[in-house]
Design goal:
The chain has about 180 residues and is mainly α. About 75% of the residues lie in helices and about 0% in strands.
Length: about 180
């Protein structure tokens, strides 16, 4: 597809015609799905779903003006693989309440002093840090979701989380040295 053909079909897409999306879909869908199956050892159904998700995301990105003419085939394939990784990660994640640590016997009790230490360190954190760490560790929420609520980028959220963890460690260490 030439750049001028892409620009023309993109304009038509913005006006409601799906010719561009249909063209890209018909030409590349099967190849993209096969590539995900081959490169990532993905089952047929999962590769199909990941590829379909990528195509739908791709279409929306074109409408939003976030896709420029270029190697669209590569972009779509890359997006499909990313959708597959997200899907595979989500399916392989197990809740902490379902995991038992074999190194800890069920009747082992943790020392209350450790909880006290953590509690003292926790109190030194800012409200923002406490909320961030609580949402991430106790509620199991993703940093990108937490950041979306406040309009903060995922990279910034990761850095904030790291700083909050460092503050908590420092406070706990200071608390042990002060005993």
């Amino acid at each position: 597809m030439t750049e001028s053909a892409f620009a023309e079909l993109k304009e038509q897409l913005l006006e409601g015609s799906e010719k561009l999306f249909e063209h890209i879909f018909l030409v590349h869908f099967k190849d993209c799905q096969q590539y995900v199956m081959q490169q990532d050892d993905a089952p047929y159904e999962v590769a199909y779903d990941a590829t379909m998700d990528a195509f739908l995301t791709f279409r929306q990105r074109i409408v939003d003006g976030k896709v420029a003419y270029g190697n669209l085939r590569y972009l779509l394939t890359r997006m499909a693989r990313q959708h597959y990784y997200k899907r595979a990660k989500k399916e392989s994640t197990v809740g902490l309440d379902l995991v038992s640590d074999p190194s800890v016997a069920p009747d082992v009790k943790f020392e209350p002093s450790l909880y006290d230490l953590l509690g003292r360190g926790w109190k030194t954190l800012t409200k923002e840090c406490r909320e961030l760490l609580r949402a991430f560790y106790y509620q199991g929420r993703a940093l990108k979701d937490i950041g979306a609520e406040t309009g903060t980028k995922p990279d910034t959220m990761r850095k904030k989380k790291q700083r909050c963890q460092d503050q908590l460690k420092t406070a706990c260490l200071a608390s042990t040295q002060g005993q």
